[in-house]
Amino acid sequence: MFIVPSEAGNKQEISNSISRFIHAFKVGSLLKKCNCKKEKGIPFMKLFTYILCNVFRDRSMYMQKKTGSFREDFSRNTYYRFLRSARSNSFIPINFSLLASSKEENILGEVKSYDRRSLAGKRRIMAQRKGTDVMIQLIDEAMKAGHKAGYVLFDSWFSNPHQIVEPKDKGLDTIAMVKISSRISYEFNGERRNIKQIYNSCKKRRGRSRYLLSVPVRVGQDKKDGHSVDAGIVCVRNRINRKDWLALVCTDMSLREEDIIRIYGKRWDIEVFFKTCKSFLNLGSEYHGLSYDALTAHVALVFTGYMLMSVAKRDDEDERTLGELFYFMVDEAADITFSQSMKILPDAMPASIRTVFQASEEQINTFMNDFISRLPEYMQKSLPADTAA
């Protein structure tokens, strides 16, 4: 267990926490697999650790040099060369891609040529593809790296039929927010209809139901998407505007409507993730250069910092990391709490009666005998043996 210190001035404790994180999860070995290694001079892990420490010290290299607190044995040029390195990739939780324009008039700065087989070249090729195609490529790379998932969750920006059909072909079910558009149609009762037509043609559930409508459809067309897949559409009320509605599509026909809504709710975690990265880890504000490789390195370092925070929070606050011992502990704690309460009750109640009503011992005993006799049998058995009944 380790804690990321909250005091920005405690440099040594911050460094020790990050070092334990790197050692525990073998970050160095993972970075080597991404071709992150030194060619000469300062060790790679020293620069990597220094940049992570800066995130939690809330003090940039510029401010350290300005205040005279910079004590590292490498120069500013070494620091920026590390961020600009085009021959290395950076360790990240799953994967990400910074999209860029393929039009020359929209490109700022000098355009360098890279070997298309290198990591830098592949990153640039991916950055200039459509975002919906990049999503499929990122899923492929995550699966090849050994990651497993039951569902792919995404919002309406990605929920075109093609993006719903393709993950299904890879063995992954999709739960997505349906794009409310008249241009996207689904096969419903043998006809092609858009989501508005489907919603208006069906009877809605009344009362306090968690959803308004649930219907089976087929998503995709043979000409555009190769084939179609079975899916279910669940319509729910919009929390912001109760007169409005939202629609979810799921390709797992065995899921209940309540489970579809619950699982899709997990997608909100990514919104919290981005908010945390922007507000606390300086995503997009710490580096303002035009180098695509430097921006990629900046985002990767921010994401690594978020990983460190998540692991620290889980180890420090979440008792579920104890495994099965957690459940035994919780059950035992509940029994102890009940037992202690039943021991306190026979002592606290007579004392209050004696103080407030000035009752005699005989009156108090009569009251307690009557009170205990009215308790359920299991509560009477939980009282101390010397308590009057």
UniProtKB/TrEMBL annotation:
Domain Transposase IS4-like: start-end pairs: 132-307
Pfam family, one: DDE_Tnp_1
Domain of life, source organism: Bacteria
GO MF terms, alphabetically ordered: DNA binding; transposase activity
Listed transmembrane segments: none
GO BP term (any one): DNA transposition
Stated name of the protein: Transposase IS4-like domain-containing protein
